[in-house]
Write a structure and sequence with these properties.
alpha/beta, Lyase, Ornithine Decarboxylase, Chain A, domain 1, about 30% helix, PLP-binding_barrel, D-serine ammonia-lyase activity, D-ser_dehydrat-like_dom
Length: about 375
């Protein structure tokens, strides 16, 4: 058994395809690597959006990680149910989600929840809601340092917003949140240089806040690509997410980081419709479809070319049809793991090349109970 291929299953005939397999020993490796890179486990705030699962949260908590980041109320509720100590909802709550956030705080009093704002209107709405509910809300100012997706530019307007937040008697100024997912240079040295340059205005904003005699803001920064650099900043909490399961997209871009793919797609050939063509049961409903081809990296099928995909099917050109047969099993790493996990109700847990358990993807929906 020592020579078994790490991803293979002993009795695959009993496994549904498609399935998403996860490997706890590899997840543990990735957790340990995150902690060793940051040096101080109290400065880790991993994002749960990748896996949305209590078992993986519990593995991290057992390793000493107590702070987490999430993107939805359902993910925050999952963390509350795990008794996570500190949870940042890294999605500015608008509309009914602002009221759901209050209910979340009420339901899980043992967890400290916070969230983001990037404008005065949202600040005022949350202040009014906090006042009506006789509570204080902890808020981070979301900073746009180049990604141009959310946040406020770190200039005088951001300084004014943070000052207003600090003065508001119904709110708590938690700090600054900075996500720089646009920084993906494959050269680590250049990526670090770009990360440092993008972070300079944030440092300047922090100093400006301190000059107003406001307590120095805490900072949560980065995702997986910039994790190696932010984790060196002793006054910053780093918040990687994809590092827990990894994928072929980041694996090819950032091989120097040393994280292991810990999630594998299990698939079968369902048809050989014509010469040189294979069809797998890996459609849009089973893989994140937003990436260009290839959307997966086959671990055991070389020289294949993915050419089309529909709801249930993935069509592949292959140069040797004398080997694959209809019903044959294959394994592949998804290019983008985060939205791929959300396609599955459960993760099939593999230990010692055998199915050992099934972990529910509890927070794959927008709503759990709140």
């Amino acid at each position: 058994m020592a020579n078994e291929i790490w991803y293979s299953i002993h009795r695959p005939e009993n496994v549904i395809s498609p399935s998403l397999l996860v490997y706890p020993d590899r997840i543990q490796h990735n957790i340990d690597l995150m902690i060793s890179m940051v040096g101080d486990v109290t400065r880790l705030r991993p994002h749960v959006k990748t896996y949305k699962n209590a078992n993986i949260i519990n593995l991290q908590m057992a390793a000493g990680i107590q702070k987490f980041k999430c993107a939805t109320i359902a993910e925050a509720e999952l963390l509350g149910g795990c008794n996570a100590k500190d949870v940042l909802l890294a999605m500015q709550p608008v509309g009914v989600n602002a009221y759901r956030f209050i209910k979340l705080i009420e339901k899980y009093p043992n967890t400290t929840f916070s969230t983001l704002i990037d404008n005065a209107k949202t600040l005022n709405i949350l202040s009014e809601i906090a006042a009506v509910n006789k509570t204080k809300l902890s808020l981070w100012v979301d900073i746009n340092n180049g990604m141009n997706r959310t946040g406020i530019i770190p200039d005088e307007e951001a300084l004014a917003l943070y000052s207003e937040l600090h003065k508001n008697k119904h709110l708590i100024a938690a700090g600054l949140h900075v996500y720089d997912g646009h920084l993906r240079n494959t050269d680590p040295a250049l990526r670090e240089s770009e990360c440092d340059a993008a972070f300079e205005p944030v440092i300047s904003l922090k100093k400006s806040i301190e000059n107003l005699s406001i307590p120095s803001p805490k900072i949560v920064a980065g995702g997986s690509p910039t994790f190696p650099f932010h984790c060196k900043r002793t006054d910053v909490d780093a918040s990687p997410g994809t590092t827990l399961l990894w994928d072929s997209g980041y694996g090819k871009l950032f091989p120097e980081m040393g994280f292991l793919p810990a999630a594998v797609l299990f698939t079968r050939i369902i048809s050989k419709p014509t010469t040189g063509i294979l069809c797998f049961d890996l459609g849009h409903k089973s893989i994140a479809p937003e990436m260009p081809f290839p959307r997966i990296e086959f671990l055991d099928l070389k020289h294949s070319k993915q050419i089309s995909q529909s709801e249930e099917h993935l069509v592949v050109e292959y140069d040797d049809l004398t080997i694959p047969e209809v019903g044959d099993i294959h394994y592949a790493i998804p290019k983008h793991i985060c939205p791929t996990v959300a396609k599955y109700d459960t993760l099939t847990v593999i230990k010692d090349n055998a199915v050992a358990d099934y972990w529910p993807v509890t927070a794959r929906t927008q709503k759990s109970t709140i």
